[in-house]
What does this fold into?
Amino acid sequence: MSDENLVGIVLVSHSAAVAASVAELAQGLSGAGASVPVAPAGGTDGGELGTSAELIAAAAASVDRGAGVAVLTDLGSAVLTVKALLAEGDELPENTQLVDAPFLEGAVAAVVTASTGADLAAVATAASEAYGYRKV
It folds into this structure.
């Protein structure tokens, strides 16, 4: 399956290194499925800790293949920045959704599910259900 019909995933963290590492882990754990377009959007434009609307918008545009874009975030201002971009209406690709999910586990679930060709609703549901993953 080509990535042309896959949901794109954007991982927004206050740290560029964290966003990139979570993207690498999620893609690595997705197995033999299709290569899901995943883009980290971490830190500020200047490389500091924080969030950048410009980096988030660029990441979303880079993974958009027309099947939707799922955005997962780490902490408060990342959520607020994505919500502001969604409210503006023209900064993110059409059919972009902020997903309420744990950052790491949700990213893995989203990428694995997207690699099967699932639609945006299924990807978002899988990521959200990661809140229920038990470790003991």
Q: What stands out?
A: The first helix runs from residue 16 to 29.
